[in-house]
Amino acid sequence: MNGPKTNPGNFFEDFRLGQEIQHAVPRTVTEGDVALYIGLTGSRFALPSADSFAQSVGLPGAPIDDLLAFHMVFGRTVADISLNAVANLGYAAGRFGVPLFPGDSITARSTVIGLKENSNRETGVVYVHTVGTNQAEEVVLDYVRWVMVRKRDKAAPAPDPLVPQLPDKVAYADLDVPLDLDLSGYDLVLGGSPHLWEDYALGEKIDHVDGMTLEESDHMTATRLYQNNAKVHFNQHTEGQGRFGRRLIYGGHIISLARALSCNGLANAFKIAAINGGRHVNPSFAGDTIYAWSEVLEKAELPDRRDVGALRLRTIATKDRPCHDFPGPDAAGKYPENVVLDLDYTVLMKRRG
Amino acid sequence: MNGPKTNPGNFFEDFRLGQEIQHAVPRTVTEGDVALYIGLTGSRFALPSADSFAQSVGLPGAPIDDLLAFHMVFGRTVADISLNAVANLGYAAGRFGVPLFPGDSITARSTVIGLKENSNRETGVVYVHTVGTNQAEEVVLDYVRWVMVRKRDKAAPAPDPLVPQLPDKVAYADLDVPLDLDLSGYDLVLGGSPHLWEDYALGEKIDHVDGMTLEESDHMTATRLYQNNAKVHFNQHTEGQGRFGRRLIYGGHIISLARALSCNGLANAFKIAAINGGRHVNPSFAGDTIYAWSEVLEKAELPDRRDVGALRLRTIATKDRPCHDFPGPDAAGKYPENVVLDLDYTVLMKRRG
Amino acid sequence: MNGPKTNPGNFFEDFRLGQEIQHAVPRTVTEGDVALYIGLTGSRFALPSADSFAQSVGLPGAPIDDLLAFHMVFGRTVADISLNAVANLGYAAGRFGVPLFPGDSITARSTVIGLKENSNRETGVVYVHTVGTNQAEEVVLDYVRWVMVRKRDKAAPAPDPLVPQLPDKVAYADLDVPLDLDLSGYDLVLGGSPHLWEDYALGEKIDHVDGMTLEESDHMTATRLYQNNAKVHFNQHTEGQGRFGRRLIYGGHIISLARALSCNGLANAFKIAAINGGRHVNPSFAGDTIYAWSEVLEKAELPDRRDVGALRLRTIATKDRPCHDFPGPDAAGKYPENVVLDLDYTVLMKRRG
């Protein structure tokens, strides 16, 4: 084992179909992470904000914000999957399992489920299925993402291309509703909105109104907190000479800001149950102000539950572009350059019952 | 309940005298918040810094810094009270109750106790009495603040004007000294200063010497931590086109910095017991360096206590202006533009006994 | 005790040989501090990241990162030792004792062990031996540092010069290996590298490859977290008119970044056992990107341990200067201006056994 000690990251030709990767650096998620997450995003959803509120709906205490759990799992995978990534292309089939609580320790492992070399032979797309588990080996989150990864050697032979079949959305019957959850004691005033599941109409669009300006220190601190060590977020010395001339914001931070902004209009969407799909359609940089709007794509009842329903949402985030007129892709599916995120996900919301 | 889902905030004509408002989003205050508060303010008071010190004076552990408790209560109220505020005009009658400890969950409710339309008919002043309580419904903090709020409709009729009578200060007999507090074991060396209650003279002025430069990331992170979502602090895209061309610092962050700076000169003022009055007399912005000085306005013994006394202090904070010559308002009460805060509050300090 | 209340800090002539100083403001180190430390440094060592990992090697939970413990102890000492320091000249004989865990409270005391006036009679060098202890009075860390401190009065008489004998390194027999530590369950995959103690060669050099750009908000937040109140880090209003025209980064933050970067290449160096010596050879500022490389100076077995060995490392950090060619001092010992840190320390690493 003598020889270079530094991890160069995996290149496209290092991945093979069916490969299983146990990721390094388990992580205990604590009240400290929760505080920093609120400090960096301004999230105001009641459930992850207060033990008292969580206990009023049957949980032992405030669960970790779903997206904080997502970032913590994602962060484990970067050193193996995306250190040499050119772009984080998309997410699908993301399903949140048991809630994560402060003090829980997570690990993550990934399986390579798809590979496709690009026609330029310089890069390829790697599809991985990642599973994050807690210290009891319960699944906290599993999801698929695909990234464009550089090849080490353009001449390296291409694997047989396989693009996995990915579901349009996580099936409602597969959503995990926390076992002990009982919304009979859910306080709408404390929740922050009088609007319940019944009040949202199919196709309804909501402008979340507020904006949040990005700072270098904020996005780097968030990304470091998740121990996501992708180089493009941290090194102005090299990025200053790169494609954009500046550090790139971790796309997950944009997802978190969009979700935090969405509290104004969706305050009782107390939990993200699934990430059906998502794309970072343009990069964001320090100084940009992030706005967001949402559309209700679907509504669904859940098996055996009358207190909680599902809303499938599409949240689009923009930069330096208010969302009163709901900007999105044009008829050809092309996004204007000030749209940065298009996320399709399913939330749980209190029903009138 | 169909219809717009986004909270537009209350306008002046939405408030009525006697109205009671339960604020949304309860908040568990944790060791994570404590760490971030120290990281953002540099506060060095011994009591909220160490369980060991707190236990040496009879408390079960380090209480939450009084101003962190204040910001957490204040943060609850913003969405209902000051989302459409033009200015946060003042505070009075602020009384800290039972200490807050990590793990406690707070909620806040407010009562409208005064209303007065301004002569321009475009804005009005709203006076609210806010009470913050812990999960046992014990009062953690109650205070009055008044804000100038925009009217939705200039033509809306004005309510009968009522400006509440507000006390000059919180009466010493009304101050809450934590029940178990016993300063016999108070270690002056660990406390950080040899100066005790007896050593401070009426009218004495103290230059706190040090300065702290404001950064966008710091004030936004502090303000988000408190879940204070007032727009002016976060959105450069709109504020860049506004009055000041930049984001405004949350006034409470300036109070915290002034208090943290005051540790150099007032290290044994281990607790704020009351905020008698306070005004943000000029705005602050990123890049400004905050300085502070204090004057001893009054000294008082406390009923049944020989180990602890009260000092009524006035702390003035400036920007880019050292305080060796104690800058303040002129004879006409007008403040120079580099004075930003004038705060009248009462601290508890160890006595020789 | 009437009179000035503000601490002016000690000047060179205020120190005397053998003087013992108990430092103020004890500090409970919490999970909140841990989160913020990870958020500000991006550290990815497995042991301080996860309770589950720590428990797999016999510890009750994740210990506080050694450097976070160092900064917390160091922070206690600043108000007494280095408030009037011109420069932090060096460290030696730093030995980590019992691990620090979240919830532990530290205090620090220092003894003056050396004094030497400089020939200009305007400054002098003060050598202090500092001991940080937990609430059970167990030693967490002890080390020597020396600082150049201004004189209040150039004419004040010089003390007899005494420069203490300092060891070249902490003896391997004196290193503290945590009592319960048992590396038989150490998981190399979770640890983040296949490389163990046996794999590192004497004289081996490792380029840690990655870079981290400094931001004002990050270094100030880190330094405030440690309650290190040295003025040069915080006040742009005065520093803008000073030597460098800007705020100076706390050298300890650079040490932390260098250690965090070193995880890429030294991931199984799970603990710092000693700081043999170290110098901040040039200042760093916001905007600089920090890189690092390390050299293996010595390898040592430890008494009665076959599962863990010691590596004595030299880690050099640079600014805006990648380290593939291992920059360092020239033959005359002079450092190029883009080298900022030269640190000699001893880590513990898993052995094949």
TrEMBL record, chains A, B, C:
Superkingdom of the organism of origin: Bacteria
Xref: InterPro entries: HotDog_dom_sf, MC_hydratase, MCH/BMMD, Thiol_ester_hydratase_Rv0216
Gene Ontology terms, MF aspect: lyase activity
Family matches, as Pfam families: MC_hydratase
Classification via PANTHER family: BETA-METHYLMALYL-COA DEHYDRATASE (PTHR43664:SF1), MONOAMINE OXIDASE-RELATED (PTHR43664)
Name the UniProt record assigns to this protein: L-erythro-3-methylmalyl-CoA dehydratase
Source species: Dongia mobilis
